[in-house]
Queue: 3 jobs
Job 1
Amino acid sequence: QDVAALEYRAPHLAAASLAFAFPAPPAGARLLDVACGTGLVARELHRRGFRCLHGVDGSAGMLERARSTGLYRQLRCCVLGREPLPAPAEHYDAVTVVGALGEGQVPSTAVPELLRVTKPGGFLCLTTRSNPSNLRYKAELEAMLQSLEQQGAWQKVLVQEVERWERATSEEESTQGTGYISGVVYIYQKCPVTPLQES
């Protein structure tokens, strides 16, 4: 109810961006939805053909809600930043973290752990907010993203700045008095990027 009132568009924007970047038919792709919450992102991914969805979240109550959607093949409890993801290395074709990369939530230092569980050539879809109280975190996150790119761990596919991300909860947080805050979708592809097979 809260996210509906806030016109929260991140799950829709993230799923659309990932589906756009994803070269293969998504039905057979194994995807990990990190900080999956109640399954808002899964609903959007499912609409775009992703069928093999696994989710992790730090809240047992959220996981119960996610389970009730029937969209996940597997759900596990994990607090990212405090413990490793419950998955082997190079296991997923895609990993999403939507709405949890922010001040007081998942630390930016957890990003390499997302890369660890992604297959070479796999995609990572991350989002964060650009409102005033999250700018310090956003700068830390972007420094981490850039550093991993410079190390050759992944390559940038897409960075989409979105003005009307969600309604602002206060005037101070609002972007230039619009009543909304802005946000960003990042899509990266893990290196080495495997060339497409000739069919």
Job 2
Amino acid sequence: QAVPAGSHVRLNLQTGDREAKLSDDESGKGDTREERRRKRYRDANMGCGWAVDVDSNSFTSEELKKALAKMKKSEKAERKTHEEEVRKKFRPIEQLKEEFEKLNVKMETDYEIMVKLISKFNSSASTLDEKVAALYDLEYYVHQV
């Protein structure tokens, strides 16, 4: 629930209600209908200047918990259907590797290439030019990640 700018808001630890103290404007002019309704509620029920936030559109904690559980269930179902669609469109990497090996083509993942580049860079047998080239190539792969 939106409250007017400059209002004091607190959480009542005894009741768990959020409360807003409305300004003490004598004229009441410029107040919206919602603010006037809150003032009437405050004056009639509290007397202390603190109005309990009573929004007709608010929900109980149990209603919110049920709605959240429904959202989680629907999200899981959506994720599962999405994963099934992806599995139908694409093949696993292991299957692709096997097919490429049959064609005598070696397929490497970015991770495998990066490991080779790092070992080439750390190798004492590599020349300075090879190390620089390895760093440039590694920069390309790291940038993709």
Job 3
Amino acid sequence: GHVGIVLAHTLPDCQIILIENKEESLVRAQRRSSELDLKNIDFLQANLDYFTRPFQIGVALHACGIATDMVLEHCIRAGAAFVVSPCCYGFIQNAVKFTFPKSKRFQETLTSKEHMILCRFADQTAVQLPPERRLIGKHCMGLVDLDRVWAAETHGYLVQVMTMEPESCSPKNNMLVGRPPQRTAEPAGHIDA
């Protein structure tokens, strides 16, 4: 709940909904929020699939494996913007809900097995590894995230992949920032006859 609590504190006019599967983490976040007397944060212990309320921005820090893809899918279905920091690329795998690669362009280039190998290499960014190996890992992270970007763009999203600074803040320091397509409003009182 670190990010949710910071957002609630920094943006007092916004309502923050913190969704967490683990009870222990949720209780800790509730305690911290109470200590800070935050009134603009709600807590929900659930899997993201059970969250059905409307929202405008989805935020996830270190969303492990397919958790990133779950957040992106949920935001796209809701027409919400997103800021997601992917993590644990090596845990990305085909599941009932997701198949990889996600984008048509990557599907034309990589098999599912080759995509899984790319994901395993994307996890090779630990500081104790040689710099050239970390660089390969960073490039592989970028490719996995590019596949995600292209998949989101098919829904009209504008997406950027950014690197958190300083890069040492996390070995997995990419961020996917997406803006939904602009909606055009119907002119008030306009009726086609």
